[in-house]
Design goal:
Structural class: alpha+beta
CATH architecture of the largest domain: 2-Layer Sandwich
CATH superfamily of the largest domain: Transposase IS200-like
Number of helices: 15
Distance between the termini: 44 Å
CATH topology of the largest domain: Alpha-Beta Plaits
CATH class of the largest domain: Alpha Beta
Strand order of the largest sheet: 2-3-1-4-5
Low-confidence stretches: 227-238
Order of helices and strands: EHEEHEHHHHHHEHHHHHHH
Amino acid sequence: MPRRPRVEYPGAIYHVMCRGNRQEPIFKSDADRRSLLKALGQTCERAGWIIHSYVLMLNHYHFLLETLRGTLVEGMKWFHTTYTVRFNLRHKLCGHLFQGRYKALIIDPDEPNYFRRVSDYIHLNPARAQLLDFDFNNPDLESYPWSSYPAFTGMVNQPVWLESRRVFKSHGLEPEAYRQFRFYMRKRTLEALNLDYALQEECESIRRGWYLGSADFKKRLLERVDGAIDGKKRESYSGPAARSHDEKSALKLLQKGLQSLETSLDEIRNRKTTDRQKQGLVWFIRNYTMVKSDWISARLKMGHRSNISRAIRVYEEGSDPIVKEIKEKMLQCKD
C-alpha cells in the first residue's frame, strides 16, 4: 500500500510525533533531552519552524509545529539525523534511533478549537502516563519538566523558538495569562486521570486521523494532493519547487556573508578549504538554510563533503578568536 504524501505549504500546522526504533527509549539521560531540544531549536532556525507546544516522553516526542516556509520534510530529515548522530556519538552506538516514519497530523488553522485540542493533548501526555508528582486531588502538571507547559505557566524561561501566544489565544486567554491557563490545565489533568470519556474521544481523533479540521479543510487538502490520499501516485511537495526556494535563500545569505567579510565569491572559491572565512560561509549557509551540502560544496569549491563537516565542527566549537570574530559578523548580517 503506497504511503500518503506529505502535505507541505507555507504556514501549515502539524502535530508531529515519532517513536524510538522498536519503541525503545530515545533518551538515556537528561543530557540527551537537552540535546534534542538544542537540535529542535537549530531546526527551527534553519527550516523556519515555530513550536507551539512540545513534550518529550521516554520513547517518543510530540510537537505542535508551524512551518513558515513549507519545510516539514527537509526539516524533519535534518532534525532526526542531527539528533541521532549526536546521540550515537555520546553513547558510542550506531544505527537508527527513530522508527521508520514520523506521524504528521495536519491541522485546520482557521478554527482555534483544533489547535487547542492538540496543545492540550501534548501537555497532558505526562498525566496520562502517570509521570507526575502530585496529590491525586491536586495534580501538578508543572512537575514534569520536559514539556512546554512549565514555560507556559511562567515557571521557566521560554526559548526563542517556542511561541505561547497562539495557544493562549486558542483558549480565549490573553498572552501570559498564566494563572487562568494553569487553572484550566489542572481541570484537564483531572479529566485525564479520571479517564473522562469526552477527553478520550478527543484524544482518539488526534491519534488516528490524518488531518484535524472541518470538512472544507479536508476538501482543500485533497485538492492539494490531487487525489493521492486515495492511493494515486503524485509528485512530492518536497521536489524541484522546494529545492529552488532553498537555493534562492542560500544565495541571498551567501551574498550577505560575502558583503560582511568584504570579499567576493571568486576570491573565496580560490582559497583553501581550511580558510577560516570560507569555512565561516559554509557554516553560515548550512546552519541557516535547508540547502544541500552538495550545493554548498559546488558553490564555494569545497571539494569532498567531509570538508563541509570539518568547517561546521570548527565553527560549532568556536574556540579560535578569528572564528569567533567571523561568526559574529555572520550572525549580524543574518537578518
